[in-house]
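Entry 14: structure prediction run for peroxidase. Input pasted below.
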Amino acid sequence: MAAGIIRLFFHDCFVRGCDASLLPKTVPGNEGESEQDAGANAGTLRGLEVIDQAKARLEVACPKTVSCADILAFAARDSTNVVGGFSYDIPSGRRDGRISNINEVDLPSPGSDINTLKMAFMAKGMSVKDMVALSGAHSIGRAGCNFAASRLYFFNGTGTDPSLDPKYAMILKKKCPKNRISSGTTELDLVTPDRLDNQYYRTKGEIRNKCGVVN
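Run finished. Output tokens:
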């Protein structure tokens, strides 16, 4: 659940800032769809019920005081502490946004190359250093097999991407056989999949050894 909550926080903050605009659902009959229905979010968001439960309890204890935006920020901070063993100071006082528009969701695609990613983060006022730091959240969590399929089975329309480590490619093929491409998942980090650590960056880790689920 920690990985899902951390992902929620990033997907919220990247669009309109950390204003909980990701949380409202599309209301039938209202004009437009919410951020939850965007391709990057639809059917993949985890942890929403945790935020709802926290909000319900806080409304009983101190009505109309703590925003959903603050709850999500604190939940992401505490999730980091649970799975990473470290914490950080974070101020309160965020206001909940009143707009949630599917057309404003401009999250980077999993297939984006490095230049596209740099431009996307810079457009939000973030540096390359910020981008690299935030990418470390991929040290935990899982990815759909469909994101790896193009390099495992259909590279250049035929076989496996030769830039993949052969041993790692075999592991992925066992976790993501062709008959489970649309439904299967695999760990983003095979070494410490449930720990938020620096394995994502280490010289002998996934990226430099070509052993991480990145496109």
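Notes: The chain has two domains: 2-104, 108-215. Will compare against the previous run tomorrow.
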